[in-house]
Amino acid sequence: MKPSDHTPIMRVRDLTKTFPVASSGLDRVRGLPAKSVKALTGVSLDLLRGETLGIVGESGCGKSTLARCLVRLYDADSGTLEYDGTNVLGLRGKNLRSYNRRVQMVFQDPFSSLNPRMTVGQVLNEALAVHRLRSSREIPGRIQELLELVGLPKDASERLPHEFSGGQRQRIGIARALSVEPETLIADELVSALDVSVQAQVVNLLLELQERLHLTVMFVAHDLRLVRHISHRVAVMYLGRIVELSSTEKLFSSPEHPYTQALLRAAPDLDPSRKNTLEAVHGELPSPLNPPSGCAFHPRCPKAFERCTLEVPKLEARGLEGHESACFLYEPSSKFKLNLNLLEKP
Amino acid sequence: MNPQTATTLLELRDLRTVFHTARGALTAVNGVNLSLHEGEVLGLVGESGSGKSVTLRSILRLVRPPGKVSGTVLWRGTNLLELPESRLRKVRGGEISMIFQEPMTALNPVLNIGEQITETLQEHTNLSSQDRNARATELLELVGIPSPKERLKDFPHQFSGGMRQRAMIAIALASNPKLLLADEPTTALDVTIQDQILKLLLRLKDTLGMGVILVTHDLGVVAQTCDRVAVMYAGRIVEVAPASELFAQPRHAYTLGLLNSVPGAQSTRRPLIPIPGAPPNLANLPPGCPFSPRCPYVTNACKLEQPALQAISSTRLSACIHFDRLEPVNAQPPPEVQP
Ligand SMILES: Nc1ncnc2c1ncn2[C@@H]1O[C@H](COP(=O)(O)OP(=O)(O)O)[C@@H](O)[C@H]1O
Ligand SMILES: Nc1ncnc2c1ncn2[C@@H]1O[C@H](COP(=O)(O)OP(=O)(O)O)[C@@H](O)[C@H]1O
Ligand code: SF4
Ligand SMILES: [Mg+2]
Ligand SMILES: [Mg+2]
After folding, report:
1. Predicted ipTM of the assembly
2. Which of 3.30.470.10, 3.40.50.11190, 3.40.50.300, 3.20.20.140 would CATH assign to domain B1-95+178-339?
3. Ligand 4 center to residue B214 CA distance, Å?
4. What's the rounded Cα separation, in Å, for the pair B270 and B89?
5. Is A315 part of any domain?
6. In chain B, where are the structural domains located?
7. Does residue A159 belong to any structural domain of this protein?
8. A338 confidence band (pLDDT: 50, 70, 90)
9. Which residues form the domain of A66?
C-alpha cells in the first residue's frame, strides 16, 4: 500500500528540546555553568497523511523526546509544530484536548501505562468519557466494538491488566488509543518488549487497523528490521538530529549517511552465510552532555574530513529526489534546484 | 565442525530443574540433552521463559532453592552436579566463566575494575602480585578498553554500558576459562555496540580457544555468531542444527514459526506470520508435544506422546514428528488476521 496522498498532515520545523541536568554541589561552588542535555537539536520533518513514518536510532538519540513533544507531553523549547494547518505549540485547554484526541500516543511499556486497579472496561470507559465521544448509553457497545477491533476476548472488559499477557496488554493500549477515534498514532517502541512471535501478532494488527481506519502512524523503534517492515518512509536520528530521511526502500538499499550505513551493517543479518568479521563502526556513542562539534558523527565516521568537525551538515536532498541526508560527502541538490524549504518561510 | 570428530567439552544429560513453588512444581528445564564441542559457539535460543537462563545457571549449580537440579553435567569427565562445593568453586569462574545481560549484577560496585580482575587472578592463577597487575592491564586492552592502565582504577559506575560489558568480559577471561557461558550479553546494548561486543567475543574465542554457549532470543545474533544452534521451547530442546542448516530449513514447527515471525527484507508491509497463542504454563504442560496447541502441523500423533529429540541426519536433531513435512521459511500463506 502507498500512503493515500502525499500532503503533510503534520509539519515539524527546527524543534529543539533541552533538559537541565542536576549539577553537583561541587560544580556550583566552583561556579561552573549548569549542564543541560540537548535531546533535540533542530528537528524538521513532515508526516504525510496516511503514511507510516519510522523513526530509528540508538538509545538516547531523542526518539521518545520527539514523540512526546509531538503530543505536547513535553513542551519544545523552540521551533514550530503544525497539525492540519493549526499551530499546535500555541494550543491550550479545549483546543489542546481536541488535538490530543486527534493525535494519540501509544506507549512502550504496556505495564506502566495501565492503571493496575482498573479493569479494561474502566480504562476504555475513562478514555471515552473524557472526550465525550459517546453518550453513556452507547459506551458499553463501543467498548465491545473496540475489544473486537483489537482481537481481545469479549470478557476482557471485566478483567484487570495483570491477567493479560504482554501482547494482550499491548492490544489494550492500542484499544485505548483508538477509543477516541484518532487520525494519527504515535507509537513509541510499541512492540519492543514482546517476543518475536507475539510482536508479529501486534504488527499485523497495526497494519490492518491502519488500512481499515486510514490512520497516519509514526512508528518509533530501535529495531531496524521492524521499522523497515512497517514504514513507508524512515528517519534516522543520531544525537538529537535527523541525519537521514527517505523512502524505506531507498534508505535500506542506498543509505547515504555513514551513520545509517553503519547502523545497517551492525544489525545482525538473518542469513548465516553473510557474515562480516569487521566491526560496523568503532567507538562509543558520544555523551549528549558534551556533543562533538560539527557533524556529531565525525569522531566515529571513517570518512570524516576537516569540514565535518567545524560545520553542522544540514538535512537536505543531496542526490535522489525525496532522499534527504545531513552529510558533507554529498553536494546538496538545492544548489541546482529550487529549495522548497525556503519557499515556506516568509 | 563435524560432531563425530570434534572433542566434547561439555555434555548435559537429562538435565532437569524444577522449582517447587506454592502453586506446584514448575519444570523450567525439562530433560535437556546437549553437548558442546571444543572451540565451538553454541547458540541457545528461544522466547522468554523457555528456560535458557535456568539451563545456564544449572550447569554451574547457581540455581537457588526452591529450585532443584538433577541429571548430569559432564565437564571434561566429571559430573559437576556431584562435585563437592569446594571443588566446584574452582571450576566456577575458573575453567567455566559466565557473563550476563546486566553487567552491574555481576560487577562489584565498591571495588575498582583492577581490583576485581586481580581478585579473580589471585583465586585462579599462580601469578605474582606484580604479574597480576600487568595481566589486568593486558586483559582490559584485550577487550578493547582504551587507556587500560588508567581505567583499572575506575569503578563500574564510571563506565558506559558497552565498556561495562567489556570490563565484565575481562574479568570472566582472567581465569583463562575453557568455556564461557554468556546469557544475553548484548541484549541491553545498542546495535552498533552489540556488533562490537559480539565480534570481540568471536575474536577472543578464537585466540583463547574457548567454547561458548550463547543464550539469546535474537535470531539475527544467532545467525551471525553461532556454529550450532539449540532451540528451546517450554523447558525442552526441540531442535539442534548447524546454524547454516537451521536457517536454510528449520526441522521443527516451532523453529519455523520463530523464523516466520521475524520481518524479512522483502515483505514490506505485508502481514507477518505469527505463532498463534502463547507458550504453555510450565506447571501444567499439554500432553504430547508441548508446541502442539499452537502448531499448524499438529496431528493426533503429536498429542499422544512427547516426541523425543532424535537424530534426523548426521548433523541435526529434531523433536518434531512432522520434521520432514515443514514448508520453507516464509512460504506459508499468512494466517487469517484475528477479528
Ligand atoms: N525527562 C528527562 N529529563 C532529563 N533528560 C532527559 C529526559 N528525557 C530524555 N532525556 C535525555 O534526552 C536524551 C534523549 O532521550 P530519549 O528521547 O529518551 O532518547 P531515545 O528515546 O531515542 O532513547 C537522552 O540523553 C536522555 O537522557
Ligand atoms: N527462582 C525461580 N523461582 C521460580 N520460577 C523460576 C525461577 N527462576 C526462573 N523461573 C521460571 O523458570 C522459567 C524459565 O525461566 P528462564 O530460564 O529465566 O527463561 P529464559 O531465560 O528462557 O527467558 C520461567 O517460567 C521462570 O518464571
Ligand atoms: S558529515 Fe562527515 S563525519 Fe558526518 S557522516 Fe558525513 S562524512 Fe561522516
Ligand atoms: Mg525511547
Ligand atoms: Mg533469560
Report:
1. 0.89
2. 3.40.50.300
3. 27
4. 52
5. no
6. 1-95+178-339, 110-176
7. yes
8. very low
9. 8-21+35-255
The sheet carrying B317-318 orders its strands as B96-99, B179-183, B211-216, B41-45, B228-233, B236-242, B317-318, B310-311
Atom of ligand 1 nearest to the CA of A240: 14
- The three-class DSSP label of residue B237 is strand
Contact B261 A200 (CB under 8 A): yes
Strands B228-233 and B41-45: parallel
How far is residue B46's CA from residue B275's CA, in Å, rounded to a whole number? 13
The pLDDT value given to residue A344: 45
Contact flag A222-B337 (C-beta cutoff 8 Å): no
Encoded amino acid at A157, one letter: S
**Beta strands A241-247 and B8-21, pairing class:** unpaired
Residue A22 pLDDT > 90: no
Q: What is the pLDDT of residue B265?
A: 66
Given an 8 Å threshold on Cβ–Cβ distance, is A197 in contact with B195?
A: no
> What average pLDDT does the structure give for chain A?
89
pLDDT of residue A334: 66
CA-CA distance, A171 to A209, in Å (whole number)?
12
Strand partners, A86: A83
Ligand 3 atom 1, closest CA: A327
Percentage of residues in chain B having pLDDT higher than 90: 80
Q: How far is the CA of A257 from the centre of ligand 3 (A)?
A: 7
Amino acid letter, B195: D
- Pick from A203, A191, A47: which is nearest to B271 by CA? A203
pLDDT confidence of residue A312: 97
Distances (CA, A) of A70 to A83, A100, A245, A319: 10, 10, 18, 29
Say whether pLDDT at A252 is over 90: yes
**Which has more confidence, A300 or B269?**
A300
The predicted structure's pLDDT at residue B3: 47
**Best residue in B272, B273, B291, B294 to probe A by mutation, most A CBs within 10 Å?**
B272
Phi, psi of B205 (to 5 degrees): -60, -45
Chain A hits for B48, CB-CB cut-off 8 Å, are 195
d(CA B220, CA B194): 12
Please give the C-alpha separations between residue A76 and each of A42, A56, A64, A337, B150, in angstroms, as whole numbers: 10, 20, 13, 32, 40
Q: Does A153 touch chain B (CB under 8 A)?
A: no
Higher pLDDT, B230 or A153: B230
pLDDT at B337: 40
CA distance B164 to B203: 18
Q: Report the pLDDT value the prediction gives residue B338, as an integer from 0 to 100.
A: 39
Query: Using CA atoms, how far apart are residues B52 and A45, in angstroms rounded to an integer?
Result: 43
pTM value > 0.80: yes
Candidate from B191, B193, B278 with C-beta closest to A267: B191
Q: In this complex, is the C-beta atom of B328 within 8 Å of any C-beta atom belonging to chain A?
A: no
Q: How far is the C-alpha of B138 from the C-alpha of A44, rounded, in Å?
A: 47
- Arithmetic mean of pLDDT over chain B: 92
CB A262 within 8 A of CB A285: no
| B77/chain A closest Cα distance in angstroms | 33
Query: Could you identify the residue written with the cell 563506565?
Result: B159
Whether residue B267 is predicted with pLDDT greater than 80 in this model: the reply is: no
Q: At what angle do helices B161-173 and B113-124 cross, to 10 degrees?
A: 20
Residue A62 CA to chain centroid, in angstroms? Answer: 9
Domain annotation covers residue A290: no
Q: Which grid coordinates belong to B87?
A: 571443588
Please give the backbone phi and psi of residue A86, each rounded to the nearest 5 degrees, phi first: -100, 140
Please identify every residue whose CB atom is under 5 Å from ligand 4, which is an ion: A 63-64
